[in-house]
């Protein structure tokens, strides 16, 4: 489990292909304790497992992680060139501070940067997302973009926009991405489960008795921005 609060910007040092899969060699600076074999790290929002440690930390660490064909084809990791910067976050320890929002590291789709514009030291970024994901994105809701927890300002058709504050611009790779760049999107897991519950509905035998309750919950979800 992650929070979308990036710990450090890392670098893809090397990629070694093995059939349809690949092993990624990544360098990053981790202030906490040294990396451990088998732990999870979000790489641009993609949950990967540390398969080998080339250079142990704390401090500068180099580790290897395997990426399957599924991961390479459905996320931006398959596009990354050697030397590319990636956002890194280690899994949250039990009892750790949840400063962003609940992030699983399971990417839902890939979006593109449609527009970027400076706003008094901040940067407004507009993303175009696959239409099947729009239903999970709400104004003032949370979204994870390439491993970064952000707040949605507005949603319009198949686009949403966010504002990158100075800290996010400095500590993550998002500020350097050009218009047209692809980014990993993970929608808010709460929105996903709400949508699934509404899709499933209730058995016909209980519809009449639960109509008032359903209406109340639907109204509450609308006011919260999930519908």
Concise account of the structure shown:
With 227 residues, the chain is of the alpha+beta class.
Q: Count of helical segments?
A: 5
Helical amount among residues, as a percent range? 10-25%
- The strand line-up of the biggest sheet is 10-9-13-7-8-12-11
Give the CATH topology of one domain: Elongation Factor Tu (Ef-tu), domain 3
Structural class: alpha+beta
Average pLDDT confidence is: 89
**Major β-sheet annotation:** 7 strands, antiparallel
Strand content: 35-45%
Name of the level-1 CATH class of one domain: Mainly Beta
| C-alpha geometry | globular
How does CATH name the architecture of one domain? Beta Barrel
Strand tally: 13
Rg on CA atoms, Å:
19 Å
Distance between the termini: 25 Å
SSE inventory with pairings:
Elements: E1 8-18, E2 21-30, E3 40-43, E4 46-55, E5 59-67, H1 69-74, E6 85-90, E7 109-119, E8 122-128, H2 131-134, E9 142-145, E10 148-151, E11 154-156, E12 159-164, H3 166-171, E13 182-187, H4 189-200, H5 204-224
Structure notes:
With 227 residues, the chain is of the alpha+beta class. The chain has a domain at 8-90: Elongation Factor Tu (Ef-tu), domain 3 (Beta Barrel), CATH 2.40.30.20. It is built from five helices and 13 strands. The strands form two sheets. A seven-stranded antiparallel beta sheet has the order 10-9-13-7-8-12-11. A six-stranded antiparallel beta barrel has the order 1-2-5-4-3-6. A hairpin with a 2-residue loop joins strand 9 (142-145) and strand 10. The mean pLDDT is 89.
């Amino acid at each position: 489990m992650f929070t979308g609060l990036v710990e450090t910007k890392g670098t893809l040092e090397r990629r070694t292909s093995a059939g349809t899969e690949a092993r990624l060699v990544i360098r990053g600076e981790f202030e906490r304790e040294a990396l451990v074999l088998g732990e999870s790290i979000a790489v641009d929002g993609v949950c990967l497992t540390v398969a080998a440690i080339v250079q142990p930390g704390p401090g500068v660490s180099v580790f290897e992680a395997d990426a399957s064909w599924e991961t390479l084809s459905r996320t931006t990791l398959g596009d990354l060139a050697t030397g590319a910067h990636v956002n890194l976050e280690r899994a949250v320890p039990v009892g750790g501070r949840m400063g962003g929002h609940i992030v699983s590291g399971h990417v839902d789709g890939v979006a593109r940067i449609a527009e970027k514009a400076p706003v008094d030291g901040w940067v407004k970024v507009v993303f175009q997302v696959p239409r099947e994901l729009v239903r999970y994105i709400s104004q003032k809701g949370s979204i994870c973009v390439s491993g970064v927890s952000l707040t949605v300002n507005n949603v319009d058709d198949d686009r949403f926009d966010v504002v990158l504050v100075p800290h996010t611009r400095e500590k993550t790779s998002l500020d350097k991405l050009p218009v047209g760049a692809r980014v990993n999107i993970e929608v808010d897991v709460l929105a996903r489960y709400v949508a699934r519950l509404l899709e499933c509905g209730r058995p016909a035998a209980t519809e009449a008795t639960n109509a008032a309750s359903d209406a109340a919950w639907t109204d509450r979800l609308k006011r919260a921005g999930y519908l």
